[in-house]
């Protein structure tokens, strides 16, 4: 099994238990196919999602999977938990294998969660340098004022981590509701930012990640595969 990107000759040498010099002959004879096409170069790079065949026998085939899920309250963003239902538990049994979570949500936070078996893709969405925006709808216990907008935009110093949050966008919908856009995901970040004003977050819902919005027809607890266009939109 291919666990990362590697040269084709190295992969074949390992899988077929032959010296790498013998791989050159096998490739020259056209006995190897990668993703349906004859592969002859020892320098060809393959990854875990390549379909590799030798003399018609399948050596490796694993398709990338990208899933969106509408997370309900009371569900943990984990692959397994002995006490609580996990986001993985909400998926059909045949879809749960080898998935991991792309950006977690707190226990009582609802909304868009992404799951995949593609580690490079998930890292591209969660790495701090990529600055993928996440949109949240927030319901609060006390009224929100324009003072909040300035504070969120300026960033807040979190003493425990010793960091200042990046500028965050805040739009007031009505006195008790707001939209927040973050380009990072610190521990309980939104709750802590409103906590600076002694304003408790009553409900928190993630509506979008990058260009991908949670569809109105995806009910709480339901999931579906991303379309090719949605994957591309998040990857660009």
TrEMBL record:
InterPro entries: PsdUridine_s_RsuA/RluB/E/F_cat, PsdUridine_synth_cat_dom_sf, PsdUridine_synth_RsuA/RluA, PsdUridine_synth_RsuA/RluB/E/F, PsdUridine_synth_RsuA/RluB_CS, RsuA_PseudoU_synthase, S4_RNA-bd, S4_RNA-bd_sf. GO terms for biological process: enzyme-directed rRNA pseudouridine synthesis. It catalyses: uridine(516) in 16S rRNA = pseudouridine(516) in 16S rRNA. Residues 6-68 form the RNA-binding S4 domain. GO terms for molecular function: 16S rRNA pseudouridine(516) synthase activity; RNA binding. Pfam families: PseudoU_synth_2, S4. Keywords: Isomerase, RNA-binding. Its EC number is 5.4.99.-. Belongs to the pseudouridine synthase RsuA family. Responsible for synthesis of pseudouridine from uracil-516 in 16S ribosomal RNA. This is Pseudouridine synthase. It comes from Pseudomaricurvus hydrocarbonicus.
């Amino acid at each position: 099994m291919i666990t990362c990107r590697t040269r084709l000759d190295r992969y074949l040498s390992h899988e077929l238990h032959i010296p790498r010099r013998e791989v050159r002959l096998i490739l020259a004879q056209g006995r190897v196919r990668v993703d349906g096409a004859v592969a002859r170069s020892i320098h060809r790079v393959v990854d875990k999602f390549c379909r590799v065949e030798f003399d018609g026998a399948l050596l490796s085939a694993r398709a990338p999977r990208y899933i969106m899920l509408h997370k309900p309250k009371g569900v943990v963003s984990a692959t397994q938990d002995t006490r609580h239902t996990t986001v993985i538990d909400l998926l059909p049994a045949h879809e749960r294998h080898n998935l991991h979570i792309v950006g977690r949500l707190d226990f009582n936070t609802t909304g868009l969660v992404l799951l995949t078996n593609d580690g490079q893709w998930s890292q591209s969405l969660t790495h701090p340098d990529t600055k993928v925006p996440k949109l949240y709808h927030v319901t609060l216990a006390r009224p929100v004022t324009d003072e909040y907008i300035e504070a969120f935009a300026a960033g807040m110093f979190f003493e425990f981590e010793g960091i200042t949050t990046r500028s965050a966008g805040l739009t007031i919908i009505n006195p008790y509701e707001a939209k927040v856009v973050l380009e990072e995901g610190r521990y309980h970040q939104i709750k802590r930012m409103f906590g600076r004003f002694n304003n408790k977050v009553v409900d928190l819902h993630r509506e979008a990640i990058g260009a991908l919005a949670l569809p109105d027809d995806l009910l709480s607890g339901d999931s579906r595969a991303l379309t090719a266009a949605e994957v591309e939109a998040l990857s660009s």
